[in-house]
Amino acid sequence: MRYPPRGNRQDRACAPVQFVGVPDCDELCVVDGDLVDDQETVACYRTGDRLTGLRTMNRRAEIMKYRTLIARGATFDAAVAFAEQRRATRAARTTA
């Protein structure tokens, strides 16, 4: 069973939110999911061309992977490419 179960917006109050990095940024960009309608999101914090922080909701397995990118000084474009790769991998698993 998924935690929390999909349903109305009240379920989101129980959703695990995790953050890594620095929240002070030039731009916040949702790279996977939707902050309004989706219970599973990944949002990147960008300062200049660098990934400086990341917030996830219901994506506990992803936070450490992005933490490594931040520690290595990855560019924001690298983080977006990584998010696209993760999304494609999840899509392939659900269609298989």
Termini Cα gap = 19 Å
The helicity comes to: 25-40%
Give the name of the CATH architecture.
2-Layer Sandwich
**What is the domain total for the residues?**
1
Helix-strand makeup class: alpha+beta
Cross-sheet strand order for the largest sheet: 1-4-3-2
Beta fraction: 25-35%
Average pLDDT over all residues: 84
Give the overall form: globular
What value does the Rg take, in angstroms? 14 Å
Instruction: Give a short account of the largest sheet.
Output: 4 strands, antiparallel
Q: What name does CATH use for the topology?
A: Enolase-like, domain 1
Give the strand tally: 4
Q: Could you name the ranges where pLDDT drops below 50 across 5 or more consecutive residues?
A: 1-10
Total of helices: 2
CATH hierarchy class name: Alpha Beta
CATH superfamily: FAD/NAD-linked reductase, C-terminal dimerisation domain
Structure write-up:
- This protein has 96 residues and is of the alpha+beta class.
- The protein has two helices and four strands; from the N terminus they run ββββαα.
- It has a single domain, classed as 2-Layer Sandwich (Enolase-like, domain 1), CATH 3.30.390.30.
- Strands 1-4-3-2 form a four-stranded antiparallel beta sheet, covered by helices on one side.
- Strand 3 and strand 4 form a beta hairpin.
- The N terminus is likely disordered.
Features:
single chain, 96 residues, alpha+beta, Enolase-like, domain 1, four-stranded antiparallel β-sheet, 4 strands, disordered N terminus
